[in-house]
């Protein structure tokens, strides 16, 4: 048992010119202070305390010398020309050493800090120091320091040594035995003279209350409990759980592929293969007529002529169908490969009733190469984006480890399990699902791509007129984006704070954008955005996100400009979508808005005519109302979490477009096959569960570190993962199912001619 002595002094003098000086000399150190004790705050404000109480650094008996008496000298002096009355009281502390799993209550103030000793039990390698208080203020600091004298237990020096964090109502520090060679440490509690560091009010000036005495006005009742942390076996169990949970998706995919293979073989042996095999891959090579269905040319040119034009211009006749990577194929450029002589694309694309054959007239190989650029570009972006991010978060973690300042990173400290140099390994491990499922999605797309190539090599050229055109470049890009979301989310959780939150959301923007592009590309393969313009748009969004983090907190001018950009971009994009990319006036894009105003005036005010494309008009009106609502909300409330605000805009637009697509698909008498139907249901269920855990806020960098710790909660899964980790697991699965929905949604159309597939 270690004995400790506490010295209490009190002086009635408030004269700052002639303080009373106390010097305590011990065997291994000297401790000194003055009364009145002065603390300095913001704007050099001073706070005076006439009552001071300090714990002297204890001397632990060694095995060589055994217990012995400790001699302490207390020197009291003052330069005052008059007598000063003081009180000196020396007491022995009865409860200086804290015990495991036993709560201890005490009181502290700025001039009367407290610290206690803790020794690791034999079978404990890691402990969590939990500190709670019923009162938010005064602001306090909890510090863990090695057994070294002097102990830094005042506001101006508590940050000089060890690990520390600020506190309002709750704090938690995980301590490992390996970090303390003596297998013991001090837990220090300091009350700050001001509360602004914990989110309290900020002093407005340096005037007033300079000589005021604060003796009993800033005391705080605290309770400390030290509990054992998890054992190494829990780390192993958590890693096995993380990997096996997602490897089960691989097993499920293999089972589905095997069942599909057996079904195709049975159909082949029965001699009743259909133009599609149930997975989006056409398998027949029977002759196909080129007759045009009745009514398919309603309000437009004759389909037979356009079909003949495609046959004359098709470079695929007589060439291997899988040779779309031939270097002789010219690169995508501003030159439109659709033959202008045979049929004018402006006439075709502005028909009242469009079919997929109208928007899939370009050379398949060139279009396929165009979409493969998405894949190669996102790999380049990922490398150049991820490398500096990794370097930055390593620097953050190093600063935390070297300085001991745990206010830098916003962890859930009640469930932050360190491993090596990482402070919260569980938050990083839980992102493995994004990487594993992203890679699995790439394998699924690759299988479809290979089967499609084989089918193309075996079939007549006329079978190209069946089903949705198969372009896999965007799917590959989506798989890479999902993997990179896991990598960058893990990087963010190395040290989560407001400065690097955009790392966690950047590829979420890309995922949402790529999903919308893929959904649009499905029935508009010839007029979808190029990879360069799409990624340039994502770059603009990320730039706006960074500007929002910097200026979006209080600057009204930023929100005005952003809202204007948001509304104008929505109108411009709506116009392009409504007119299928054929809405251009000269070289000036301002002509878009000028003509849009003219059309609105002519059709809606002068004549009040019915819109030419009613379905598209309904979608775009609802979409614009949603986006304008977001713009107004941002302008009025100015949310501090700007990155999540932009992400919400993307997600809402994606969900709106997906719902519109499915509704229009069902309206067109198309059906949902069992696999896409299962994926839709699984997506909805898993997303609902994931969002439940997402909104269980465990920390918030919008507040001070001390206020954020009030939201910390214990682990809920295996004693290792918290609510946010469960969100990582479920969101990875939800994104994977969402991708499968886009991949399989139109498998029912593989036996349908393109001139019978409507465009919406």
UniProtKB/TrEMBL annotation:
TM region(s), chain numbering: 238-262, 374-394, 428-446, 474-495, 501-520, 532-551, 557-579, 617-636, 642-663, 675-695, 726-745
Compositionally biased region (Low complexity): 304-314
Localization, UniProt: Membrane
Membrane protein topology class: Multi-pass membrane protein
GO CC annotations on file: lysosome; plasma membrane
Residue stretches of biased makeup (Polar residues): 281-295
Ranges for region Disordered: 272-336
Alphabetized Pfam families for the sequence: SID-1_RNA_chan (PF13965)
GO molecular function: double-stranded RNA binding; RNA transmembrane transporter activity
Biased amino acid composition, Acidic residues: 327-336
Keyword Ligase set for record: no
Keywords, in A-Z order: Glycoprotein, Membrane, Signal, Transmembrane, Transmembrane helix
Similarity section: Belongs to the SID1 family.
Protein known as: SIDT1 protein
Organism, as annotated: Oceanites oceanicus (Wilson's storm petrel)
Protein encoded by which gene: Sidt1
């Amino acid at each position: 048992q270690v004995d400790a002595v506490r010295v209490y002094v009190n002086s009635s003098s408030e004269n700052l010119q002639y303080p009373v000086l106390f010097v305590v000399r011990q065997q291994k150190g000297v401790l000194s202070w003055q009364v009145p004790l002065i603390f300095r705050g913001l704007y050099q404000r001073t706070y005076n305390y006439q009552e001071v109480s300090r714990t002297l650094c204890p001397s632990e008996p060694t095995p060589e010398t055994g217990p012995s008496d400790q001699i302490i000298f207390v020197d009291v002096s003052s330069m005052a020309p008059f007598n000063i009355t003081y009180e000196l009281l020396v007491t022995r502390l009865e409860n200086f050493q804290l015990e495991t799993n036993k709560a201890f209550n005490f009181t502290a103030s700025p001039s009367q800090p407290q610290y206690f000793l803790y020794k690791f039990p034999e079978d404990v390698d890691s402990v969590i120091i939990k500190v709670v208080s019923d009162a938010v203020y005064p602001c306090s600091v909890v510090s863990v320091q090695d057994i070294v004298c002097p102990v830094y237990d005042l506001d101006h020096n508590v940050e000089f040594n060890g690990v520390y964090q600020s506190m309002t109502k709750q704090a938690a520090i995980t301590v490992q035995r390996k970090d303390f060679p003596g297998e013991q440490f001090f837990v220090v509690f300091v009350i700050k003279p001001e509360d602004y560091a914990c989110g309290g009010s900020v002093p407005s000036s340096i005037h007033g209350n300079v000589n005021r005495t604060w003796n009993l006005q800033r005391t705080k009742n605290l309770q400390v409990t030290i509990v054992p942390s998890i054992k190494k076996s829990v780390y192993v169990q958590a890693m096995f759980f993380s990997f096996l949970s997602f490897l089960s998706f691989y097993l499920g995919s293999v089972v589905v592929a095997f069942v599909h293979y057996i079904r195709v073989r049975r159909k082949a042996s029965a001699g009743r293969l259909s133009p599609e095999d149930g997975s989006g891959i056409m398998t027949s090579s029977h002759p196909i007529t080129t007759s045009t269905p009745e009514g398919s040319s309603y309000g437009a040119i004759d389909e037979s002529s356009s079909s003949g034009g495609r046959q004359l211009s098709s470079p695929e006749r007589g060439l291997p169908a899988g040779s779309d990577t031939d270097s002789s194929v010219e690169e995508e450029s501003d030159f439109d490969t659709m033959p202008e002589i045979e049929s004018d694309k402006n006439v075709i694309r502005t028909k009242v009733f469009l079919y997929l054959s109208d928007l899939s007239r370009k050379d398949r190989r060139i279009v396929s190469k165009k979409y493969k650029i998405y894949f190669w570009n996102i790999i380049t972006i990922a490398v150049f984006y991820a490398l500096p991010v990794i370097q930055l978060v390593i620097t953050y973690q190093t600063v935390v480890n070297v300085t001991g300042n745990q206010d830098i990173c916003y962890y859930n400290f009640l469930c932050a399990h360190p491993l090596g140099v990482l402070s919260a390994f569980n938050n990083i491990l839980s992102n493995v699902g994004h990487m594993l499922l992203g890679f699995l999605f790439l394998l699924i797309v690759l299988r479809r791509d290979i089967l499609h190539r084989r089918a193309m090599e075996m079939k007549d050229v006329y079978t190209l007129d069946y089903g949705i055109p198969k372009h896999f470049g965007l799917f590959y890009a989506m798989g890479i984006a999902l993997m990179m979301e896991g990598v960058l989310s893990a990087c963010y959780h190395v040290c989560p704070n407001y400065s690097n939150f955009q790392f966690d959301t950047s590829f979420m923007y890309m995922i949402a954008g790529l999903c919308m592009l893929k959904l649009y590309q499905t029935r508009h393969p010839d007029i979808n955005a190029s990879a360069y313009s799409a990624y340039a748009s994502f770059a603009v969004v990320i730039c706006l996100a960074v500007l929002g983090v910097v200026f979006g907190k209080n600057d009204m001018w930023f929100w005005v400009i952003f809202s204007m950009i948001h509304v104008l971009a929505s109108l411009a994009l709506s116009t392009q979508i409504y007119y299928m990319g054929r809405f251009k006036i000269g070289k000036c894009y301002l002509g878009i808005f000028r003509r849009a105003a003219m059309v609105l005036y002519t059709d809606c005010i002068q004549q009040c005519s019915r819109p030419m494309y009613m379905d598209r008009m309904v979608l775009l009106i609802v979409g614009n109302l949603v986006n304008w609502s977001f713009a107004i909300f941002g302008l009025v409330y100015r949310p501090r979490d700007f990155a999540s605000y932009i992400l919400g805009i993307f997600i809402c637009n994606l969900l709106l477009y997906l719902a519109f697509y499915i509704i229009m698909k069902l309206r067109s008498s198309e059906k949902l096959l069992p696999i896409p139907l299962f994926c839709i249901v699984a997506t909805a269920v898993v997303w609902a569960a994931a969002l439940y855990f997402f909104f269980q806020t465990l920390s918030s960098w919008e507040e001070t570190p001390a206020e954020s710790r009030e939201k910390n909660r214990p682990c809920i899964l295996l004693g290792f993962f918290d609510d946010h980790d469960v969100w990582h697991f479920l969101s990875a699965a939800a994104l994977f199912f969402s991708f499968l929905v886009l991949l399989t949604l139109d498998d029912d159309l593989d036996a349908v001619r393109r001139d019978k597939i409507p465009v919406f």
